[in-house]
Amino acid sequence: MRTLSSLVVALLVCATTAAAQDPVREGLWEISIQGEVGGQPISSTPLVMRQCINQQTAQDLMSKLAGGAGGCQVSDYSQEGNRARWNLACTGQVEVSGTGEVIMGSEGFNGTLDVVVGTGGQTVPMLQTFNARRVGDCK
Question: In terms of residue numbers, what domain contains 25?
Answer without folding.
Answer: 2-136
